[in-house]
Design goal:
Helix content: 25-40%
Radius of gyration: 21 Å
Low-confidence stretches: none
Mean pLDDT: 97
Number of helices: 11
Structural class: alpha/beta
Number of strands: 16
Largest sheet: 10 strands, mixed
Order of helices and strands: EHEHEHEHEHEHEHHHEEEEEEEEHHE
């Protein structure tokens, strides 16, 4: 039976701005359909439906519980404030809904473990909303990093994720409110940096994590920018990252190996939907008199038939369908990836709180 004949029916809990992008992705993906939208009020749900030209067949709910009680909803995408994730994610799992949870997934790993346990005990698929993992470019970059001849062993990594929030954003957005998203820039932008570093290291946790003193907070104490270093005893590998809500737009990842280097400037959101690029250099040396290099970086272009967010939905729906139709077990890779990211994020936060001292993992 074709995927389009048995689509996974999504409910979206919350009408955050990112939900607009994901609702479009659900519509584009070949094996999913948007079945319902829930907000804290029916008026907000209606406004979301009108603004995004949703079909009149999409059900609208003015209460999150009503969506969770709907037996036709297979999976829930949840872009709620992080402080609400524990309550509603656990309730979603208890109601048998597969869970696509927006990042950061939780305020700390103890909360995340309760969410993951609820999903696991009910046989449900979990995935966080990090879209870049699903772009075909990401697999191509991994091929290069895994090539011992071209790239060698990883020696150093740097990642940054930053943007300049408007004055309205810095005053009113949930990401700067301690009661809604207390992790601030660390949770919003730092999540990507930490995820990219761990992806480069095949999810191997660092030995130590140390936050750096260059940190900016708002008057409510929420982090607006911060940075940290990660160190692995095995291989003597070091990584650094910078995340900010008050700096120019960056989405950089640079990985330096013993034989090569990889650079990508838009790893979180590609410059274009239809294709994305990265560059690499291998075997680079200075020419005689050090007046140039013997090689130039090579650019690799990777075409993408679907936007990366639609590929995320497609993969998530494929896993859900396997559980629903073929009685397969959930793919634990995605829960493991999220938990590793959360553990390092917690360590950075802990290092900040104890005066930027190293935290052993």
């Amino acid at each position: 039976m074709a995927d389009s004949e048995t689509p996974i029916r999504f409910g979206i809990m919350g009408c955050a701005e990112i939900a607009r992008k994901v609702s479009r992705a659900i519509a584009i993906a070949p094996n999913s359909t948007l079945y319902a939208i829930a907000s804290r009020s029916i008026d907000k749900a209606r406004q979301f439906a009108v603004r995004n030209n949703l079909s009149e067949e999409v059900k609208l709910y003015g209460d999150y519980n009503d969506l969770l009680d709907d037996p036709c909803v297979d999976a829930v995408y949840m872009p709620l404030p992080t402080s609400l994730h524990l309550k509603w994610a656990v309730l979603a799992a208890q109601n048998g809904k597969h869970l696509l949870l927006e990042k950061p997934s939780a305020l700390h790993v103890k909360e995340l473990d309760k969410i993951l346990e609820a999903c696991e005990s009910n046989g449900l698929q979990f995935m966080d909303g990090s879209m870049w993992y699903h772009h075909p470019r990401t697999a191509k970059m991994k091929d290069f990093l895994s090539n011992l001849e071209l790239f060698g062993r990883i020696k150093a990594i740097h990642s940054s994720s930053s943007f300049t929030g408007t004055s309205q954003f810095l005053e009113n957005n949930i990401r700067v409110k301690p009661d809604l998203d207390a992790l601030g820039a660390l949770g919003d932008a730092g999540w990507y940096c930490i995820g990219a570093i761990l992806w480069s290291m095949n999810k191997k946790l660092p030995t130590t994590v140390t936050a750096l003193p260059a940190i900016t907070r708002n008057l409510a104490g929420v982090i607006l920018s911060c940075s940290a270093s990660l160190y692995w005893d095995e291989g003597k590998t070091v990584a650094t990252f910078y995340c900010s809500l008050i700096s120019h737009e960056t989405m950089d990842l640079a990985v330096c190996g013993s034989n090569g280097t990889l650079h990508v400037e838009d790893f979180i959101i590609p410059y274009e939907e239809s294709s994305a690029a990265f560059s690499f250099t291998s075997g680079a040396k200075f020419v005689d008199l050090h007046i140039g290099w013997n090689v130039k970086p090579q650019e690799v272009q990777v075409a993408c038939k679907l936007p990366q967010e639609a590929m995320m939905i497609q993969e998530f729906s494929r896993l859900v369908k396997g559980i629903k139709i073929s009685r397969l077990r959930p793919d634990s890779k995605w829960a493991s990836t999220t938990r590793s990211t959360q553990l390092v994020l917690d360590a950075v936060k802990n290092s900040i709180e104890i005066g930027f001292k190293p935290v052993q993992m």
